[in-house]
């Protein structure tokens, strides 16, 4: 018996038209819709029900969050991706608000080996593939970033927590600053918005 890889589509939704077009052009087994919180948008609520009715044979789940809470949306999308051991996962960046599309991209960048395609659905037909990037950070740099997010504010704090030499701590901090994940001097470190998001997406504890 041959094993068929599950086809997963993740998409924000505002009106049902674009999502329906993306689903119709793919052999989708599982659809994950990202929408405003339940009751916050009548149009989104109706569009989700239209998609459920139109594609009753597809397993459909939702992520309902404020469209402006990119960190929370990205975290939940990453968690959804992690549910699948072996699947072809695509993300439709076309519908919904731009902040929801950005959140999908952040989630995809944190799971580069699991997300197969990011795409924009063109109005005239066809898709434009969006390049997928990966977050370039080694394990020690990630632990240093976690340390600052968790309240460590100096290189001495990180030296004590990570149990590595002070020069190595300076190296991690400088690399994180250069990458835009950390800011401040060595006695007053803090994570940037990007650093906080990456720490949340890549945290395993």
Search tags:
205 residues; elongated
Please give a structural write-up.
The protein is of the alpha/beta class and 205 residues long. The chain has helices spanning 16-24, 42-54, 70-82, 98-110, 139-149, 155-162, 166-178, 193-202; strands spanning 6-12, 30-35, 59-64, 87-92, 115-121, 127-130, 182-183, 190-191. The strands form 2 sheets. Strands 3-2-1-4-5-6 form a 6-stranded mixed sheet, with helices on both faces. It has a two-stranded antiparallel ribbon with strand order 7-8. A hairpin with a 5-residue loop joins strand 5 (115-121) and strand 6. Helix 3 packs across helix 4, helix 5 (139-149) packs across helix 7 (166-178) and helix 6 packs across helix 7 (166-178). The longest helix is centred in the N-terminal third of the chain and has 13 residues, at 42-54. It is elongated and about 60 Å long. It starts with 5 loop residues before the first strand and ends with a helix.
């Amino acid at each position: 018996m041959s094993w068929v890889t599950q086809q997963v589509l993740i998409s924000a939704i505002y009106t049902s038209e674009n999502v329906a077009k993306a689903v119709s052009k793919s052999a989708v087994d599982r659809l994950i819709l990202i929408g405003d919180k339940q009751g916050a948008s009548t149009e989104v609520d109706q569009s989700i029900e239209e998609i459920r009715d139109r594609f009753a044979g597809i397993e459909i789940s939702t992520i309902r969050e404020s469209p402006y809470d990119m960190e929370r949306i990205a975290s939940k999308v990453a968690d959804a991706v992690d549910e699948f051991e072996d699947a072809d996962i695509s993300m439709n960046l076309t519908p919904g608000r731009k902040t929801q599309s950005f959140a999908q991209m952040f989630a995809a960048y944190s799971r580069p080996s699991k997300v197969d395609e990011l795409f924009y659905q063109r109005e005239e037909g066809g898709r434009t593939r969006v390049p997928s990037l990966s977050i370039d950070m080694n394990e020690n740099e990630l632990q240093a970033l976690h340390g600052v997010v968790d309240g460590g504010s100096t290189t001495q704090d990180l030296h004590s927590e990570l149990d590595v030499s002070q020069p190595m701590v300076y190296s991690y901090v400088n690399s994180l600053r250069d990458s835009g994940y950390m800011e401040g001097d060595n006695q007053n470190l803090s994570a940037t918005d990007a650093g906080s998001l990456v720490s949340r997406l890549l945290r395993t504890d």
